[in-house]
Amino acid sequence: xxxxxxxxxxxxxxxxxxxxxxxxxxxxxxxxxxxxxxxxxxxxxxxxxxxxxxxxxxxxxxxxxxxxxxxxxxxxxxxxxxxxxxxxxxxxxxxxxxxxxxxxxxxxxxxxxxxxxxxxxxxxxxxxxxxxxxxxxxxxxxxxxxxxxxxxxxxxxxxxxxxxxxxxxxxxxxxxxxxxxxxxxxxxxxxx
Length: 192
Fold this sequence. Notes:
Layout: H1 9-23, H2 30-37, H3 41-48, H4 51-70, H5 72-75, H6 82-96, H7 105-113, H8 118-144, H9 154-171, H10 177-191
Helix pairs in contact: 1-2, 1-4, 4-8, 6-10, 7-8, 8-9, 9-10
C-alpha cells in the first residue's frame, strides 16, 4: 500500500509557479522550490520528475490563471474596444500596486529562454496563440458592431495587440505610469 500524500498537488504547484515568477527559472534552485512548496526532494522528483517538468506544469497553471482571471474580461467582451484599453490599464495597476510586481511570467520566460528549449517554447506558443485568439475574437465582434472599418485586417491587428501586450508587460516594470498610459492611448488610436 502506497503512502498518502500530505500535500495538495494544485497548492504546491501554485507555490512553485509563484517561486519561478519571483526568481526566474535559472535563479530558482531545487532547494528553494522544496522550501517554498513545503515538500522534500524525493516528493518533488517523484511527483514532478524534474525541475524542468515542474516549470512546464507551472507555466500551464499560469496560462489557466490568465485565462480564468486576467483575460476573462476580454474573453467575455461583446466586442467593445474599450475592453482592450481597460485590460492594459488594469495590468499597469496590478504591477504598480504590487499585486503583480513581477509582471507576466510568460514575458519573463520569453526573455529568459527565447526559443532555446522546445518544451518551454511550446508553452509560450500556446499562451501567445491563446492571447492572439482572444484578441481576434474581440476584434471580430468589434468589426461586426461597427467599431472597426470593414477593411480592417483582424489577424494583423490581433498579432499587433499580442506584441503590444508583451511590450507592456516588460516596460511596466520600469517606466512610470504616464508614458505607459501614453503607449496605451497610441495603441487604441492605431487599431481604430
